[in-house]
Amino acid sequence: MICDEARERLVGQLRQLDARELVDVLREVLPLHDESEGSYRATLILAQATLWARDAPEEDHDPADLSAVAWPDRAYYGNRLGPDQGFWEDGQCKTCGLPVTSNAKRAQCPACGSACQLT
Ligand SMILES: [Zn+2]
After folding, report:
1. Which residue range is the domain that position 95 belongs to?
2. pLDDT under 50: residue ranges of the chain
3. Number of domain units in the chain
């Protein structure tokens, strides 16, 4: 546990990061909060929620979508964070079925660690 001042400094530093950098930092932290017991494993992940306006012209989607933010495949992108384009790549993890999004087409599922190829 760290004191309030240290936590505020940390928040200030995190706010200076762009989205890709924030995801990369959280990649190093969230999986540490993993709990497993018997037949299940629960891990913290980052998610993106998309809330649609009630008067949005598209009627074929739910009022809200939730996707796990997949970690960019740093090995594929030369140890870099992938394209800086927002979370425009979407898909579904073929191993665990979780809907995922990322800034990168080549990414890793944050829940099960499988490689994801997004479009
Ligand atoms: Zn998965």
Report:
1. 4-117
2. none
3. 1
